Fold this sequence. Notes:
Elements: E1 4-7, E2 10-13, E3 18-24, E4 30-39, E5 46-51, E6 57-59, E7 67-72, E8 77-82, E9 91-100, E10 106-110, E11 114-119
Parallel strand pairs: 2-11
Antiparallel strand pairs: 1-3, 3-8, 4-5, 4-9, 5-6, 7-8, 9-10, 9-11
Amino acid sequence: QVQLVESGGGLVQAGGSLRLSCSASRSIFSIDDMGWYRQPPGKQRELVALITSGGILSYADSVKGRFTISRDNAKDTVHLQMNSLKPEDTAVYYCNAKGTTPLGTNSIFWGQGTQVTVSS
């Protein structure tokens, strides 16, 4: 199994910035895609940003130009820099990783979630 440990959430005023980080524990799995999802109050979980092991990026339309995802492959760590935050960015943010065993078995792992609250 892979444990994902998140940090960096909190309360910020609209227009402010936060940086989320997520580290994956060492295991037999090699980490492929890593990303961030969020679940606003009363809504479904949605993809925010994704980065492949090769560095290909994808973003939700609502965060393009404001959020930047990056990763350190050597440390299996992924970051989400969030700028120009809006109240509608308020959500629990979850780190996500896809891992592959040496035999080719894929699994999806989730962090415990970190709260981001943006006040107006």
